[in-house]
């Protein structure tokens, strides 16, 4: 067992020593880690490596995952504390976002309803958040109404994700205008998500040939896309590929 721990300490030192050399940090870090492998590596991780991670997308994802595992309710507690200390619209929206992230959509919607009222009734961010949370809660009629309220604020208020959310709500309601809404969402969106959602709608509507054509477009795009795009949308590229394999 002591031998195994020694090997682990050595691997950690090698990893951080390589990071020192690659990033041009002072050589004394290597001396510290060599003299006290575990403690030196821990100090380096906290003082040098950890802050750097916060400035990269991948690092932020790792940190969020670690924070969620260590203290999954931290964001909720902080949002509740801030709202109790100062019940502003911004703090209420932050609390609603935390509730939504935790899956408490009904509570989140109540707060977003409050945010998007009174002097903030035409606030684009609050109305959009209300619409999106209604969508997550599968309140299809409320989602449709919220998106239509958002679109009424002007064309500058409308984003591609809003178009897709609206089309999805219409589809779930069996609204005949869902097809046109999906077509519009495909023209405004970047990436494969809108086309996959439209293809699913077409498939559910019995329009298999049209759905297949869209899936083929998505798979072709995936093959030609840069590596970072493939990684970002890999779930949707896989969904399209799997759909084409279905009988």
Give a description of the structure:
It is a single chain. The protein has three domains: 2-70, no CATH class; 72-154, Tetratricopeptide repeat domain (Serine Threonine Protein Phosphatase 5, Tetratricopeptide repeat), CATH 1.25.40.10; 159-247, Alpha Horseshoe (Serine Threonine Protein Phosphatase 5, Tetratricopeptide repeat). It is mostly helical. The longest helix is centred in the first third of the chain and has 22 residues, at 2-23. Helix 9 (140-151) runs antiparallel to helix 10 (160-173) and helix 12 (193-204) runs antiparallel to helix 13 (208-224). The termini are far apart. It is built from 15 helices and no strands. The chain is flat.
SSE arrangement:
Blueprint: H1 2-23, H2 28-35, H3 37-53, H4 57-70, H5 74-85, H6 89-101, H7 105-115, H8 124-136, H9 140-151, H10 160-173, H11 178-188, H12 193-204, H13 208-224, H14 227-232, H15 234-245
Helix pairs in contact: 1-2, 1-3, 2-3, 5-6, 6-7, 7-8, 8-9, 8-10, 9-10, 10-11, 11-12, 12-13, 13-15
Task: Please identify the top-level CATH class of the largest domain.
Answer: Mainly Alpha
For this structure, the CATH topology of the largest domain is Serine Threonine Protein Phosphatase 5, Tetratricopeptide repeat
Give the beta-strand count. Answer: 0
Main beta-sheet strand count, sense and barrel state: none
Q: Estimate the global geometry from the Cα principal axes.
A: flat
Summing up helix and strand content along with how strands pair, one would put the structural category as mainly alpha
Look at the structure and give the mean pLDDT. 84
Overall tally of structural domains: 3
**Strand-residue proportion:** under 5%
How far is the N terminus from the C terminus? 54 Å
Query: What is the radius of gyration?
Result: 24 Å
Helix-strand topology string: HHHHHHHHHHHHHHH
């Amino acid at each position: 067992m002591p031998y195994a721990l020694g090997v682990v300490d050595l691997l950690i030192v090698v990893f951080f020593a390589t990071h020192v050399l690659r990033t041009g940090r002072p050589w004394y870090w290597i001396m510290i880690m060599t003299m006290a492998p575990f403690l030196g590596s821990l100090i380096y991780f906290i003082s040098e490596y950890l802050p750097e991670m916060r400035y990269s997308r991948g690092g932020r994802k790792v940190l969020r995952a670690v924070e969620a595992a260590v203290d999954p309710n931290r964001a909720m507690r902080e949002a509740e504390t801030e709202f109790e200390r100062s019940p502003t619209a911004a703090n209420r929206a932050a609390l609603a976002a935390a509730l939504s992230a935790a899956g408490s959509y009904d509570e989140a919607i109540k707060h977003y309803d409050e945010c998007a009222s009174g002097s903030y009734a035409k606030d684009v961010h609050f109305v959009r958040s209300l619409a999106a949370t209604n969508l997550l809660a599968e309140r299809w009629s409320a989602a449709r109404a919220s998106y239509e309220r958002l679109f009424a604020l002007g064309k500058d208020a409308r984003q591609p994700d809003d178009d897709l959310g609206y089309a999805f709500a219409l589809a779930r309601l069996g609204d005949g205008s869902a097809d046109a809404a999906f077509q519009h969402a495909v023209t405004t969106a970047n990436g494969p998500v809108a086309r996959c959602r439209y293809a699913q709608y077409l498939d559910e509507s019995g329009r298999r040939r049209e759905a297949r054509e869209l899936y083929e477009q998505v798979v072709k795009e995936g093959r030609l896309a840069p590596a970072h795009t493939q990684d970002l949308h890999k779930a949707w590229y896989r969904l399209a590929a799997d759909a084409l394999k279905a009988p």
